[in-house]
Write a structure and sequence with these properties.
With 140 residues, this protein is α+β, with helices and mostly antiparallel strands. The chain has 3 helices and 8 strands; from the N terminus they run αββββααββββ. A hairpin with a 2-residue loop joins β2 and β3. The longest helix has 18 residues, at 90-107. The protein starts with a helix and ends with a strand.
């Protein structure tokens, strides 16, 4: 199931379940030439982090092999947040994702009914028409 999890991780890299979060600067610092005063509220974006070409070459390309070996650098891939505020349901979500993927792949083939369906972000990325699919059971 390692490769299945790599596929799920790459999907969450391209469409993270967590869009970002607000934090408060606990010290004054300089970022990209900008002075950030202590106490300022900052917003970090998981989507921007996951598409940084410094950590993910060809960031728009779907490539599950990015997660082989040691995987991405710490805090460059954060679909469940990171550090002390990491989602406590991360491992449960992992289990649910893998069980779902296993059952769908083993039991069905499928086809998208709207092959060029657009993705809208409001605030989470979702298919504009709900992603209708046709499930075809495998013959036993």
């Amino acid at each position: 199931m390692k490769y299945s999890w790599n596929v799920a991780c790459e999907v969450m890299r391209l469409a993270p379940p967590l869009q970002g979060a607000f934090r408060e600067a606990i010290n004054e610092f300089i970022f990209a030439g900008f002075s950030i005063p202590k106490g300022w509220k900052l917003y970090w974006s998981a989507n921007s982090t996951h598409r940084n070409p410094e950590y993910f070459p060809e960031p728009e390309k779907f490539d599950p092999t990015r997660f082989e070996g040691n995987g991405p650098a710490p805090y460059s891939y954060v679909p469940f947040g990171g550090g002390p505020r990491m989602c406590p349901g991360k491992e449960y979500a992992r289990l649910e994702i893998l069980v779902f993927m296993h059952n769908v792949v083993k039991r069905f083939s499928w086809e998208k009914l709207l092959p060029d369906e657009k993705i809208i972000v409001d605030p989470m990325p979702i298919p504009a028409k709900g992603l209708p699919v046709r499930l075809l059971p495998h013959n036993a």
